[in-house]
# Entry
Amino acid sequence: MSQLENNESLSYDTFAASVQRSQALEEDIRKNPQKHRVLTGDRPTGDLHIGHLFGSLLNRVKLAKLGVETFIVIADYQVLTDREVFDRISECTVNLALDYMAVGLDPDSGNVFIFPHSCAPELNQLLLPFLNLVSIPELERNPTVKEEIEAAKMARMNAGMFTYPVHQAADILFCKADTIPVGKDQLPHIELTRTIARRFNARYGAMKPIFPEPQGLLSNAPTILGLDGSQKMSKSRNNSIALKATEDETAKIIKTAKTDSDRNIAYDKANRPEVANLLEIASYASGIAPEKIAQDIGSGGAGKLKAFLTESLNEFLRPLRTRRAELEKNMDYVRKSIDKGAARAREIGAQTLGEVREAMNMYICRK
Ligand code: TRP
# Structure
């Protein structure tokens, strides 16, 4: 580890700095979209829901429409870190791509590439050099991994779980992305990625730095709570509305959403989080400020709020659901789009891996 000790050690508590960098980055993207490359992604574990939509997906669509080159990784290897079930990974991968395309991420636009990381061996090979650039104590301190281990109730942590943030650094650096739209929970992984980029450049790229130091782009949307009032909307907790849910299913789930006993509807995040959450979702869907919606409903009670939410959300989701249904009839096109994304990822990955191996003085095989 002595080589690492010469470098500044990795610190994960840089939230304020991340926010500041994120704001500056956002401004520059608006001015110079062509200068940036976005990489972000998700694990293929289930259907995307409105929490994903308002929290991150719409932001990705906006960036892509600005013309920013956008890589979206379907992190299928990452699924294996905390579960043993793997029979549906391929199906979930295709479904996730379908959800992306339904929200408006268009692989035919020429600047959007959707690919599973297991399809890009060049990307995965970066993991080997990167593993030598971080210390075990640094990985042990990662707060997001700590939480995930707790949540997965693992008796013994596997090394895949322990090292997946390094793999995630490969997801980001293989294409030299500089802009990573993520939620707060992913910031430790980005900090690690920045550290790996810096150390790689310092150790092997003194003459010619290879990697940029990527930055997180934090979304302004506050986290959407689960409809049961719990801290997070998630499919496994049965408190979410999937993008692909029908209008009737949407109405039904909203009917069961938790509220409180005060008939008068008001927007009060601190004291009435469940009602505030419904007002916020209704606000995203309708474009009307939550305070105004609350005022209009007033003593109409939770029933009226839920009716308004159902109507505005279904209206917002209608074009997206229509597109989803159309795409679903043409799964071959969805698969072809993934294949195209993977081909581009491999091409860029091969280029980066070539530079990396050369910088490390590895033997270059003759064809
Ligand atoms: N860890 C992310 C999640 O669980 C998924 C992910 C994998 C990712 N690779 C990434 C996100 C690279 C951003 C950049 O949601």
In short: The longest strand covers residues 37-42. The CA atoms of residues 86 and 263 lie 47 Å apart. Residues 39-43, 73, 75, 78, 168, 171-172, 180, 182, 186 surround tryptophan (CB under 6 Å).
